[in-house]
């Protein structure tokens, strides 16, 4: 993921901003009952991208990946709608508690940009994606970074059309969605009223996406490492924030680890999971990383 990449990450202030004032209000509505469900994964299972992860001789990448992680942020579905038997194979190859968080096809988000012709495409996408059955996690829709508030009516129509049996998260990248207070409040209200997660993107070059406004009981976080030593303390800061949100009532943590250059996302993920297990008393499996050094760090 090169979005938000900068040449000198050491110059960026990666401090996580304070919570939006309405985030504790949203979480307090679900304060009682139930455990917090935690899913942590990478964006791909491709051997070429995940360096030093697959043991020599691994024959099926998804089978091995899903033995180490409990989820995947499935970016492949952004580029194409696969034939039905592909989803069935993915389902059969993964453990019963594994989740696929699939990315909506770019025909909806980028090519047609939520115009009146996207609904047939969205229906076709959901028809095959639903073959993942109970292993289907939240679907997320990522809009182009030049898709701004002038397209508000398109967003409203799409949200109202979306079938509520499919959990949805939406990622808006245009600065004006968050820097214009009136626009931001209208967007947050729309998402909250329709139980849609407001995606948080932690990347170096666009800190305005750290709006820290949850719109339902789901923290859907796309963390983008900078291939820099600062990646590790940033992950520790996220652990602290998620512990705080859990105390407020957060029940669903969906955390996906990227890098600008996908070199060691599994190693960063393993570090994050270890810290989260300790802080939250969770018991997520810590992925094995064959290239892991004794210090557990890349730098």
TrEMBL record:
Taxonomic superkingdom: Bacteria
InterPro entries linked: DUF72, UPF0759_sf
Pfam family, one: DUF72
Protein name in the entry: DUF72 domain-containing protein
